[in-house]
Amino acid sequence: MDLDARIRRRQRRNGDRRLVRNYESLSPVAHVEEPTGRGPTFERLLDHLDPVFDGNLPPNAYVHGPAGSGKSAVVTALFAHLRRLPTETRSVIQTSTRATSPPSPAFAYLDLRTTTSEFAFYRGVLGALTEESVPEHGISTDEVRRRLHARLGGSRTGVVIAVDHVDTAEGVDPGELRDRFAGLPSNVSWLAVGREDPEPAELAAYTATSVRVGRYPRQTLVDVVMARASTGLAPQALGHDLARRVADWADGDAHDALAALFAAADRAERDGRTRLADRDVAAAIDEVPRPSVSLGRVLALPPNEQLVLRELVDLDASERTSVTETTDAISASPAVDLSAGTVKRYLYEMAETGVVERVRSEGETGRGRPPSRIEFRFPPTVFRRLYDLGR
């Protein structure tokens, strides 16, 4: 329980009739410091990482589970806490009256959705090991790797790297990722996080342990929704009955549950109300496609592709009846400084990767290939709001 947050909410209550107090708290791509209802998963991961408390490296491991099961939330929260442990460069002061823990390995977290290149991968690991900034430009991948080896060459404890979204990141296949791991110094342990079960997951063959994260139980997901609403919305804005409805629909997927909560809150906020109604939740549920693409993946796209999507979500359905019409409508926007050819290419590429979907238009009787309309594979209201908040 965050008592300070509860006090701040009551301080804001008088004279502030806004429904949404903090969109970040509602965001399905934001992680909290202590995820709700994942104690057993934390314990299993801590069992695997137990050697670090004696200053040793654990073996490699694979964390897996379905979309929306909280894998990223648990791993990011755990590594944030572990980074506070004393390391060789952050060791505590020795005294004659207090025993101190041995220095632990360093910890690094990498998201492959935003760390796709080999250069960014090694730069991310090096950046976690030093307080000095690592250049983003004007330096080669070989030089970054050399600095990383030099930095870890004299280390007795090494580093543990969590690499998230190993099987859903675009442009990084398991073989390439395995080669990157092979390019790391020997005093490195890694924790791969993905959706596939260990049997088909290629990286699992190089691990000693696998940790499964299951879908959220219904009541736990209700608690997750209510916890986010308590920090992001006005007091009593969300009733338990609506939280249960969202959790029942989401079927253990926290990403989709929070996307629906976000969309419902945004709808009620735009209507000037201070409580969510049944119609808000119904409309939000209708907007979230099943299955949906993770909004984290959408927001990790290059800026120009996100810009195209931002214009796309504002188009009427009549402007999305074919790729050509959609392209013309987006290209005509004064906010888009891209050629029609580039816009069309982005739409086709995003359709190939599943961010959007091309659906064959009905009722076409002419010759040739029938036109395809563009449909979203993500909740457009949530993307629109998160994109605008990030500008």
From TrEMBL:
Domain Orc1-like AAA ATPase positions: 35-169
Q: Which InterPro entries match?
A: AAA_16, ORC1/CDC6, P-loop_NTPase
- What is the annotated signal peptide range for this record? none
Listed under GO biological process in this entry are:
cell division; DNA replication
Pfam families for the chain: AAA_16
> Per the record's keyword annotation, is Ribonucleoprotein included, yes or no?
no
GO MF terms on file? ATP binding
Q: Does the keyword Phosphoprotein apply?
A: no
Keywords carried by this UniProt record: ATP-binding, Cell cycle, Cell division, DNA replication, Nucleotide-binding
Could you tell me what this protein is called?
Answer: Cell division control protein 6-like protein
Species of the source: Candidatus Halobonum tyrrellensis G22
